[in-house]
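ARCHIVE CARD
CATEGORY: sequence design from structure
SOURCE FIELD: tokenized fold
FIELD CONTENT:
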């Protein structure tokens, strides 16, 4: 017999860096600890309504992982420069929401190396360490630069990504952990091959604005997974209102079921009921 655990508007899972990562599903005001449900039969049911995660209005379609169309078009956090921070246009006076930009983009950011589906470079606000790494399913992470703004972090990332990936292959990430990598050696390699371009950015913005980080500790991250899938099949609430199966693991923002995987962050704002069978 099914027992409903919670229902409400879905948000990205909350995480705490423990061994393994501790996960909570967020449904409205409810927080459901998920690690204790490993090995249990669960059902997620999309209840047919979507609320914008910013303004809460009902919307027939979700944009950019949870926004209604007006918010998607209006908000700075939905602008294309969020995905491509080197295109930040705050300094040109054309930011959609200058106050939001000051609070979220004109602050310290980290450029980091991570081991997700393999080695990659990425950026994040200083306040999002280590949350960003757990959301990506990284098993290792190392900050390599501290910079004064989001745009500057994007410019540094752009220099590096001609020598290293800047994306995670989510299917490979969900099939199991990558082998351990020597992130410090990779940092030294990148600093050497990109020395001239980094020096040019430091000359443009100042040495204090782009500070390389040395002798940083590598953060190792372990995920609550009983078994990784051999083949990754993903669920989509827009096609399957009910998702059911035995919970075999949690990694990144994905639930790994014996029947397939689902990226909960993708369905932010969806009204969902979670039941245990």
């Amino acid at each position: 017999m099914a027992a409903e655990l919670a229902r409400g508007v879905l948000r990205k899972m909350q995480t705490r860096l423990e061994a393994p990562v501790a996960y909570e599903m967020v449904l409205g005001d409810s927080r459901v600890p998920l690690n204790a449900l490993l090995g249990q039969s669960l059902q997620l049911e999309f209840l047919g309504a979507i609320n914008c995660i910013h303004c809460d209005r009902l919307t027939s379609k979700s944009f950019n992982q949870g926004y209604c169309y007006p918010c998607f078009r209006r908000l700075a956090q939905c602008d294309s420069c969020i995905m491509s921070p080197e295109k930040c246009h705050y300094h040109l006076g054309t930011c959609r929401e200058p106050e939001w930009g000051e609070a979220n983009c004109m602050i310290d950011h980290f450029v980091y190396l991570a081991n997700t589906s393999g080695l990659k470079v990425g950026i994040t606000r200083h306040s999002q360490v280590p949350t960003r790494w757990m959301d990506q399913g990284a098993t290792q992470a190392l900050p390599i630069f501290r910079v004064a703004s989001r745009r500057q972090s994007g410019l540094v990332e752009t220099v590096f990504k001609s020598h290293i990936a800047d994306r995670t292959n989510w299917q490979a990430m969900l099939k199991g952990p990558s082998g351990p990598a020597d992130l410090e050696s990779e940092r030294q390699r990148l600093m050497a091959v990109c020395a001239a371009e980094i020096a040019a950015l430091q000359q443009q913005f100042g040495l204090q604005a782009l500070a390389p980080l040395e002798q940083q500790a590598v953060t190792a991250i372990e995920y609550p997974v009983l078994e990784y899938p051999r083949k990754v099949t993903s669920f989509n609430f827009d096609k399957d209102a009910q998702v059911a199966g035995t919970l075999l693991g949690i990694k990144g923002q994905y639930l790994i079921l014996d029947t397939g995987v689902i990226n909960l962050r993708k369905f932010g704002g969806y009204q969902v009921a979670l039941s245990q069978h």
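CARD ANNOTATION: The chain has a mean pLDDT of 96. The first strand starts at residue 3 and ends at 16.
SHELF: design records, drawer C
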